[in-house]
Write a structure and sequence with these properties.
single chain, about 60 residues, mainly alpha, about 75% helix
């Protein structure tokens, strides 16, 4: 029998954290475009890090 396909990785937590960071920076610096850019960048980096972590864990099993 073949192995079942792996479950997709959820990135909800990373997106919520990145949104909060972006909003906080945007409000404190009074520059919403900067906050949006930093929030997007943080979200992408955290999502990539989690995907790499989860895939490494799956391969070790």
């Amino acid at each position: 029998m073949s192995a079942p396909p792996p479950q997709p990785v959820s990135h909800t937590t990373e997106m919520v954290i990145a949104t909060m960071i972006g909003v906080a920076i945007g409000l404190t610096r009074d520059n919403f475009l900067l906050g949006a850019g930093i929030g997007i960048a943080v979200g992408v980096l955290m999502s990539i890090a989690k995907t790499v972590y989860v895939e490494r864990k799956r391969r070790q099993r």
